[in-house]
Design brief:
The protein has about 110 residues and is of the alpha+beta class. It has a single domain (about 5-110), classed as Nuclear Transport Factor 2, Chain: A. The protein has helices spanning about 5-20, 20-25, 45-60; strands spanning about 30-35, 40, 60-70, 75-80, 90-100, 100-110. A six-stranded mixed sheet has the order 2-1-6-5-4-3, covered by helices on one side. The longest helix is centred in the middle third of the chain and has 16 residues, at about 45-60. It is globular and about 35 Å long. About 20% of the residues are buried.
């Protein structure tokens, strides 16, 4: 992990690597929305279910590649490895931050 990451982003990546669903969920606003694999997940309860299910099924680990931000918009690029076809794969986490928490997250294949 890079020391260049803001605290929220470092906590998010660290919690994901620990497969700590509660800590990952705590990085989001109560009404946050996540867009992943064509689906939409909204709110803490659903986000927690999504995180726990993905951790259990794919045994994922994350390596920091890049980070940039502009205002409330951030772009976090991670190399994602796990038990899924195409692993490892670089993914962009397009993030909108509100009051120090993730309000929206879109996960897409990185174009870098």
């Amino acid at each position: 992990m890079s020391g260049n990451l803001p605290v929220l982003m470092a906590e998010f990546v660290t919690a994901k690597n620990r497969h700590d669903g509660a800590a990952v969920t705590a990085c989001f606003t109560e009404d946050a929305t996540v867009y992943d694999e064509g689906g939409c997940i909204q709110g803490h309860t659903e986000i927690r279910k999504w995180i726990d299910a993905a951790s259990a099924e794919y045994k994922v680990s994350y390596d920091f590649l890049d980070y940039s931000e502009e205002g409330e918009n951030a772009l976090l690029t991670l190399m994602v490895s796990g038990e899924f076809e195409g692993s490892p794969i670089p993914l962009d986490y397009q993030i909108k931050v509100n009051n120090g928490k993730i309000a929206e997250l879109r996960i897409v294949l990185s174009q870098k």
